[in-house]
Amino acid sequence: MNRPIFCLLLCCLLFGALPGAARPQPAPDLRQLIDGLQLKYNRMTSLSADFVQLYTAPGERTRREAGRLLLRKPGRMRWEYQNPEPKLFLCDGKYVYEYVPEDGFVSRMALKESDDWRAPFAFLLGRGNLRQDFQQIETGVEAPSQAGNQVLRLIPKRNMEFRTLLLEVDPKTLQLARLSFVDAAGARSDFLFSNMRENVATNETAFTPPAGIEIRKF
């Protein structure tokens, strides 16, 4: 696990302005898109989606996983992986849990001590501010996975495990289609979303570890 899990929601851009220099302002259409995304996810209380995760690193074969995601304010996350093997990642707002049935136990870590690649999803729960958390936001950096969508590239202000965050959104509905990030070593994780539903009903037990399983603290 690598990074405080709540720099949050689409969260938390290296072309930063030099100290003392005025930062260039986004073009009007980009500015409107950023403001729309911020408002949309600030108002959202929860969402669910199917996801496909692709991990690509230099010299390695691409790894593919798939499952179901559930997010709920304030700070609840449930990642239920189904393929190629079942595993569960949870955050209850205070602790993060990871459960791989094959291991036979649940690992637990305090949220404030946890580092993890899922941190960028904090933005989706209204925990981040795109303008404040990123030093640069631009479009036109790569082709979208779906025609008509726009891809934003964001570079974080603070030193984080990832150096670039990419958000692919439908400019009309502002729905997120893909979230990707690249780390300093060039490894890339892409999350492709489908069947996304907003403001879904959730149960608190969805964010608690399986009953009867040993919990080991780390």
Kindly summarize this structure in a few lines:
By secondary structure, the protein is mainly beta. The chain has two helices and 14 strands, in the order E-H-E-E-E-E-E-E-E-H-E-E-E-E-E-E.
The helicity comes to: under 10%
N-to-C order of helices and strands = EHEEEEEEEHEEEEEE
Give the total of domains: 1
CATH architecture: Clam
Strand content: 35-45%
Q: Main β-sheet, in a few words?
A: 12 strands, mixed
Determine the N-to-C terminus distance. 11 Å
Order of strands across the main sheet? 9-10-11-12-13-2-3-4-5-6-7-14
Low-confidence stretches: 1-24
Basic shape: globular
Q: What is the overall number of helices?
A: 2
Tally of DSSP β-strands? 14
What would the average pLDDT be, to the nearest integer? 82
What's the CATH topology name? outer membrane lipoprotein receptor (LolB), chain A
* CATH level 1 class label: Mainly Beta
Structural class: mainly beta
Q: What is Rg?
A: 17 Å
What's the CATH superfamily, by name?
Lipoprotein localisation LolA/LolB/LppX
Task: Describe the protein's architecture and organization.
By secondary structure, the chain is mainly β. It has a single domain, classed as Lipoprotein localisation LolA/LolB/LppX (outer membrane lipoprotein receptor (LolB), chain A, Clam), CATH 2.50.20.10. It has 2 helices and 14 strands. A 12-stranded mixed β-sheet has the order 9-10-11-12-13-2-3-4-5-6-7-14. A two-stranded antiparallel ribbon has the order 1-8. It is globular and about 50 Å long. It starts with 8 loop residues before the first strand and ends with a strand. The N terminus is likely disordered.
